[in-house]
Amino acid sequence: MSFYEQYLKYRDYDSAGCNPGSKTIERILGQDRLLPTDFLALLSPAAQPYLEAMAQKARRLTVQHFGKTILLYTPLYLSDYCSNQCQYCGFNVRNPLKRKQLSLEEVEEAARRIAATGLKHILILTGDARAISSPDYIADCAGVLRKYFTSIAIEVYAMTQEEYGQLVNAGVDGFTIYQETYNEEYYDLIHVSGPKKDYRFRLDAPERACRAGMRSVNIGALLGLDDWRRDGFFTGLHAHYLQNQYPAVEISLSLPRIRPHAGEFQPRCPVTDKQMVQFLLALRLFLPRAGITISTRENARFRDNLLSLGVTKMSAGSHTAVGAQIDKEENAGQFEISDPRNVAEMSAALRQMGYQPLYQDWQPIGDR
């Protein structure tokens, strides 16, 4: 069993050819449960006149399932060494960057500083360089971080189920991976070389993480690489598949838009703010129980405006360079962030808008 079978079923879908009538959209908005074909209709241009109606229903569903709360977390980049040649990424092995990897002592120093902000959830990231950022190294870093945080999530290269199991045993409970684009042919084109070029191995990574015992699994596509309706549809379909196959796992989605980075790559399908809103609303209506993350790739004003439309998780105090939290930001980041607010500023903004910022969503019982 693999999501690839469902991907094949819809692979030849033509987003430009999806044109439901207004009565179809109105019928879908009146339903409690949506089918994949309903989700497809809400992503279509025909749904654009109904954004306000979609927003009202999205607000109601989000409050019903999550209340007026936003979970805050921050990313910690452990290493920017990478063996991939991904055209859209600042860590591209061909980019002439000064590379760095944190020692365990530096990881502990960064952990102390981040924990002092009150956050209990952290996301650790590395480039794809197994010989340097091995599963053993990531497990050792998790061993340091578990002293300071109740939840440790990873956003690293695709691993085997056994390697994910090793990290779960080390205290990692959350997993994030982006398929970047679900367009298999274009995926092959923009991933010029390196292990990430294996489309199927990456596509099946969330399932391996679920089977390995991850408590939460987060997926997404990098918006801007390909037609947003096509990638948006497959992202939602993938999350729907995972929810059905692994009901004990918390399935979430992120909506990252491509940002300026080292290199000359330009997105061929830029996504407007209005299109981003439509994607967010359609996701919330299709997957009412799924968490939705909006990161600091988006600017403060836009993030604030998206808040009530279905968002459940936001990053704060973000840096994309290795060593930034310990004042050793000598290298370039993976991309430019767009919302520089620190944890205190983000919390104050949330409270002002009537939302409760959550620094800790859960506490593991006993050893993990």
How would you summarize the topology of this molecule?
Elements: H1 3-10, H2 22-29, H3 36-42, H4 51-66, E1 69-79, H5 104-115, E2 121-126, H6 135-145, E3 151-155, H7 161-169, E4 174-180, H8 184-190, H9 199-203, H10 205-212, E5 216-221, H11 228-245, E6 250-254, H12 273-286, E7 291-294, H13 300-306, E8 313-315, H14 343-352, E9 356-358
Parallel strand pairs: 1-2, 1-8, 1-9, 2-3, 3-4, 4-5, 5-6, 6-7, 7-8
Protein name: Thiazole biosynthesis protein ThiH
GO biological process, one term: thiamine biosynthetic process
InterPro entries: Aldolase_TIM, BATS_dom, rSAM, rSAM_sf, ThiH, ThiH/NoCL/HydG-like
Largest sheet: 8 strands, parallel, barrel
What is the total number of structural domains?
Answer: 1
CATH class: Alpha Beta
Indicate the overall shape: globular
Topology pattern, helix = H, strand = E: HHHHEHEHEHEHHHEHEHEHEHE
Output mean pLDDT. 93
**Helix fraction by DSSP (H/I, runs of at least 4):** 25-40%
User: What are the low-pLDDT stretches, counting only 5+ consecutive residues below 50?
Assistant: none
The main sheet orders its strands as 1-2-3-4-5-6-7-8
**Architecture, according to CATH?**
Alpha-Beta Barrel
At the fourth level of CATH, the homologous superfamily is Aldolase class I
- End-to-end separation in angstroms reads 29 Å
CATH fold annotation: TIM Barrel
Structural Rg = 20 Å
Q: What fraction strand?
A: 5-15%
Number of helices: 14
Q: How many E-type strands?
A: 9
Structural class: alpha/beta
